[in-house]
Write a structure and sequence with these properties.
globular, three-stranded antiparallel sheet
Length: about 100
């Protein structure tokens, strides 16, 4: 992980909604128990939209930022997009951050 990548990841975490999304995705069964589709797919973008109370376009931008940083991955199933945390990347980020500080 380069310094530039680390900086981008830190920027991705600079918004509280993005941190909330990562937290919710850590325990999707707790925060998205009413999702119709299996949580093994991930969490449907529409469920995240509802949880934030923000517009679909705003949430999509936040999800795209987290995905570019590598913190989440997406999977398309039919017409729906599902999102999961990428815990391996998060752990690598935390280790690298620890080295830097």
């Amino acid at each position: 992980m380069s310094t530039a990548e680390l900086d981008e990841m830190i920027k991705a975490l600079s918004h509280p909604v993005r941190r909330d999304i990562l937290n919710w995705l850590k325990q999707p069964e707790l925060f998205f128990a009413d999702q119709q589709h299996p949580l093994s797919f991930g969490v449907c973008a529409g469920m995240i939209d509802q949880k934030t109370g923000l517009s679909q376009s705003t949430v999509s931008a936040h999800l795209a930022t987290l995905q570019r940083a590598g913190f989440i991955s997406s999977k398309k199933v039919g017409q729906w997009s599902f999102f999961k945390r990428n815990d391996a990347v998060i752990q690598t980020f935390l280790s690298r951050l620890h080295e830097q500080l």
